[in-house]
Amino acid sequence: MVNQYDRSRRRFLQILALATGAGFGGLVSSGSTRASSATLLTKPIPSSNERLPVIGLGSSLTFNVGNDPLGLDNVAEVMRNFFNLGGKLIDSSPMYGSSQPAIGYGLTKLGKTKSVFAADKVWTWNHSAGSEQMEQSRQYWQVDAFDLMQVHNLVAWQDHLKTLASMKQQGKLRYVGITTSHGRNHEQLEQIMKTQSLDFVQFSYNILDREVEERLLPLAAKQGIAVIINRPFQRGELIDALKDKPLPEWAKTIGCKSWPQFLLKFVVSHPAVTCTIPATTQVAHIKENMVAGMSPLPDAATRARMISYVEKIL
Amino acid sequence: MGEWTSYRLSDFILFSETVYYRQFELYNQTIWPLHGVVMLLMLLIIYTIWKRPIWSGRVISGILVVSWIWVAWAFLYQRFYQIHVVADLYALGFVLQAGLLTKYGVIKNRLTLHTTRQPWASIGKGVLFFALLFYPFIALIADRSWMQFEMFALAPDPTVLTTLAILLMYKTPKVLYIIPVIWVIISGVTLFVM
């Protein structure tokens, strides 16, 4: 492990059977989603047509393990299963404590520093510190460059977006994005989406919090912006609320065997959503989550039925 | 800076309960066998309060100063910082408290024991018993690994509680209460949100 967090006195002060089927080739289904029955679905990034698996991996809370050898190995094991099941995009932020070095540890251990779709954020109110922070993040990840760099929670977004646009022009990153979460600052985000050149936008969306269906998701589709969805489980609160409730019998028709799969399929089945980034510390959960990204996905009528059912039992 | 107001408290607790308590396990493994020395210090505090020698205020203040500095450096700055972005600020607060205890307790000898009949002294004794003797067993009672125990002078919470207990038993400048009370709020909220 890299000793980024070793501190000197002077300063004192991460479906076994499905694993072999993971990949990105597959049958073309209706709309823009491509898949085979045991392959993770992918959707295109509108600005490049590069395809991304609909299930990514978040790192908030779950990967912040410090330099605990057991914690780091667990992160790597979660990542190993994520990659084995066809996952590609991992998302982090300087705000997430030691998550970045933990991801770097896992990528290096698994030999995935070149193949991961590395998505990170710049999170500082001091614009001049942004470049240094992004370089520090890159070193933590142990990657040559980030694929996607996002302005975290709209912090100093005007200045950071200029820097990111310049970095993209210089080939230092491939995509530019901006994020928010918990339904914060949607009006401001809408204006930014209308006026700025963005490849990605990230915000919260789940079966209960659907405000973004009204304006942001349609706008993203119209503007050709890829959408990453965070908090698909309301940071676990939705699963806690639903775990003792019965999964409807008809959930089987859309390939759901659990509530997390039900919730994830709802999110990624929205036509404007590119992918979602559930986070977990458990290998069993990552396997469960990845299956949610496989065919079939609910159609509009089934999505409405899903909402109605959940709202009825909660 | 207005963006700060858009954050919720939980946005800043970006570690799980498992990872939080695992820090104490790794920490205890690292500093072993320092726990033996701390047990001697605990006995000295109890003896001093029991026998009430004239030098009790200075000695107990000295022990608290060493404890606050050790926790600031060894736990908050070296260990907790790995998972919590503001642990540096916490460490700074602990050093400030050590400074205040040095000034008012060691140098100015402003800690004077209350008479045992005063209610604050009795509450202080209860809190002292909880912090010194009960707190290390909470991990075991909560069905966690016993190695995740938290001891006075080594972990923040029992150190702060012990300090508050002693402040309640002694007549002390009120300024000494500020940082311990702030820490009780911070730690309480952290444990609640986590």
Estimate the mean pLDDT confidence of chain B.
92
- CATH third-tier fold name of chain A: TIM Barrel
Structural class by sheet pairing and helices of chain B: mainly alpha
Tell me which CATH architecture of chain A applies here. Answer: Alpha-Beta Barrel
Which chains make the largest contact?
A-B, 29 and 27 residues
Number of strands of chain A: 11
Please give a structural write-up.
The complex is a heterodimer of chains A (314) and B (194). Chain A is of the alpha/beta class and 314 residues long. Chain A has 12 helices and 11 strands. Chain A has a single domain, classed as TIM Barrel (Alpha-Beta Barrel), CATH 3.20.20.100. Helices cover 38% and strands 14% of the residues of chain A. Chain A has a 7-stranded parallel sheet. In chain A, strands 1-2 form a two-stranded antiparallel sheet. The longest helix of chain A is centred in the N-terminal third of the chain and has 16 residues, at 69-84. Chain A is globular. Chain A starts with 8 loop residues before the first helix and ends with a helix. In chain B, 66% of the residues lie in helices and 2% in strands. With 194 residues, chain B is mostly helical. Chain B is globular and about 50 Å long. Chain A binds chain B through residues 5, 7, 9, 12-13, 60-62, 64-68, 70-71, 95-99, 125, 153-155, 182, 184-185, 235, 281, and chain B through 1, 3, 6-8, 10-11, 14-16, 18-19, 22-23, 26, 73, 77-79, 81-85, 91-92, 95.
